[in-house]
Amino acid sequence: MMDAKRAMTENGGDFDAAARWLRERGLGKAAERSGNANTEGAVGVAVSPDGGAAALVELRSETDFGAKSPQFVQMVDRLAALVAAEGEAAVEGRKDEVDDLRFTLKENVELGRVVRFVAADGNVLETYLHQQNGRGVNGVLVELAGGDHRLAHDVAVHVAFGRPQYLERAEVPREAVEAERATALAQTRLEGKPEAALPKIVEGKLNGWYKRVPGGVLLEQPYAKDDKQSVTQYLGQARVVRFAQVVIGE
């Protein structure tokens, strides 16, 4: 209120000029905060009205206090709905709104990761959003072929828990695999295992590495609701085409 009063005084009671004056001052102060760490925030998840597209949007902030404010949560939800309906580029037209939020909260508010999936013909899209203190903190998108929405949602919930890095083994960088193989070999030798047994033991350790939770390969992980079977076994004839995950703080 004091800023608004000063703006009117500085601009001779001209409302439009006072609004511009406030915005210019706000932009200047926001620039001063642009170097502040913004590892908090919220995730928005949305599906387009026709169900053919889905989006994840991350909005970053400096504190969880700012991230769980109603205006912050409403903003990230609006952005996610916009991306789902119109595409990733649609958020560019909301830059002023994000700037206004920076002024209001006096934090380094910044758009983070933006992901949009458009389902291929016959495929289904599902989402999952884990909330904490009224804000989304862990959002997931899954595109599934040969399955229904219930199965796709189950996989999305698993991804939220398992936090896999890759969909299948073929996606894991060769360098990472070879580094893990070398580590497993060195560990096995230190355990005093016979040389003849080393290849089999090392491969066993690599298989365990692919399955690790959190991290690892989605299709290799034990299914969250029944760890006696893998995600691949739970899928049956269905196939995960792709997935995406955004977790606040990661």
Distance N to C terminus: 37 Å
Strands ordered across the widest β-sheet: 1-2-3
| Strand runs, count | 8
CATH superfamily of the largest domain, by name, is Elongation factor Ts, dimerisation domain
Overall structural domain count: 3
| Proportion in β-strands | 15-25%
Low-confidence stretches: none
What general form does the structure show?
A: elongated
CATH architecture of the largest domain: 2-Layer Sandwich
Helix content: 40-55%
Topology as H/E string?
A: HHEEHHHEEEHHHEEHE
Largest sheet: 3 strands, antiparallel
Helical segment count: 9
Highest-level CATH class of the largest domain: Alpha Beta
Radius of gyration of CA atoms, rounded to a whole number: 24 Å
Q: According to CATH, what is the topology of the largest domain? A: Tetrahydropterin Synthase, Chain A
- Structure class: alpha+beta
Describe, in plain words, how this protein is organized in 3D.
- The protein has 250 residues and is α+β, with helices and mostly antiparallel strands.
- The protein has three domains: 2-33, no CATH class; 40-170 and 216-247, Tetrahydropterin Synthase, Chain A (2-Layer Sandwich), CATH 3.30.479; 173-209.
- It has nine helices and eight strands.
- Helix 1 packs across helix 2 (15-33).
- The longest helix has 19 residues, at 15-33.
- It is elongated, with a radius of gyration of 24 Å.
- The model has no long low-confidence stretch (mean pLDDT 91).
